[in-house]
Each structure stands twice: as structure tokens, then as C-alpha cells.
Write a structure and sequence with these properties.
212 residues, 8% strand, 8 helices, binds pyridoxal-5'-phosphate, Aspartate Aminotransferase, domain 2
Length: 212
Amino acid sequence: VQKLTLPDIEARLAAITAAGNNTFLLQNRDVFMDMLTDSGVNAMSDRQVAAMMVADDSYAGSATYTRLETRLREIFGMEFILPAHQGRACENIVSQVMVTPGSIVPMNYHFTTTKAHIVLNGGSVEEIIHARGLEVTSDEPFKGDMDVAALERLVAEHGAERIAFVRVEAGTNLIGGQPVSLANLQEVRAACDRHGLTLVYDASLMADNLYF
Ligand SMILES: Cc1ncc(COP(=O)(O)O)c(C=O)c1O
């Protein structure tokens, strides 16, 4: 529980200046509405708090877990599910298991923590965003699309064995949250299938991407 305060505009400007315009260096007491991250540090709804009260925490066979598993299978069509507490924890697990020294991870566009985990495990990221994605002024609706021809070139140049996995960020929040089209996702999936590559989909921003 936290009492919200709305500092006046001069106080906020002073805090922003003192932080060198770096939102990571702002103190929470100077922030009225925190939109730095999508990682869930804002207020919880009455439904969320109520759901915590009736959650089944039993050590095994928890009904809450079964509900989560059923819903995730329904949405993603995957048989195996491993819940983790945060995106970066998932990235750590995926990278430790799949990235080997010298391996390559093609991505439409990098995300900070994702790249850190890949690099920590000895791999490197190849950004293959479609050229349309970097045009600042255009009406192109899906600037997050991956350049599938560039993916094919990477496979031809390095061989499929050097590729740890292919990763799609949807949307690409480091270039403004540009969305990825479902058609592009299907083309990437087909290219991965042709070369026996695993496709990792970062669904952190799935809701925004589906909206777009
Ligand atoms: C696209 C994307 N991938 C991964 C992450 C990492 O998730 P988390 O902050 O839950 O570790 C984020 C979080 O902001 C994200 O936006």
C-alpha cells in the first residue's frame, strides 16, 4: 500500500533534471504514475488482489496451477509449460540451455536483457529487422517484421548449426513498440521449419501487438 503524491510541475522538472533525464535514476517518491516498465509494478486491481486470496498454493496438484496450465496450452498450443517469475528469468533459462559460445541468435530487433543473456552465454545477436522498420516517417503498419530473406542469408552463411534459436520480439519496444504481423510470424516459422531451427517468441508485449 502506498499513498500517491502528485508533486507540482516545478518539483517534477527539478527531479527529472537532477536525474539527468534518466528515468532509471528517478526516486519513486517523485513519480505519480510509473510507466517506465511493462513489468507490473503498478497498482493491482480488486480482481487481482481477490484472486490471490483464493489461490491454491498446495505443494503439488494446485488447482491454480492447473488453471494456468490449461489456459496457456489453449493460447499457445504448447504441451510443456515452465512458469518463471519474470521475463529476464525466462531469457536466462532459455539462453543457458540453448546458447553456446560462438552461436548466433537472429532477432528482428534486440531487447536489452535478452541481448545481455545471450552475450553472457557466449552468443551474439544479429538484428534482421526489415528495412521498412527503420523508416521514421511511413504508413507501414508492421515495422517490427523480420526480414526473412536476411534470415535465409544468415543460415546460408553460418549454417543452421551455428544458430542457437531465432527470436521474435513482438512488439519491438526498443524501436517504439512497432508490431509484428501474423503473416510475418508465419513466414519466420516456415523458414525455421525448413532449417530445423527453434523459434522463440517473446510474448511480453503480445497484447499490444495483437491490438496493432
Ligand atoms: C520485450 C521485452 N522482453 C523482455 C522483457 C523482460 O521482462 P521482465 O522485465 O519481466 O524481466 C521485457 C520487459 O520490459 C520486455 O519488454
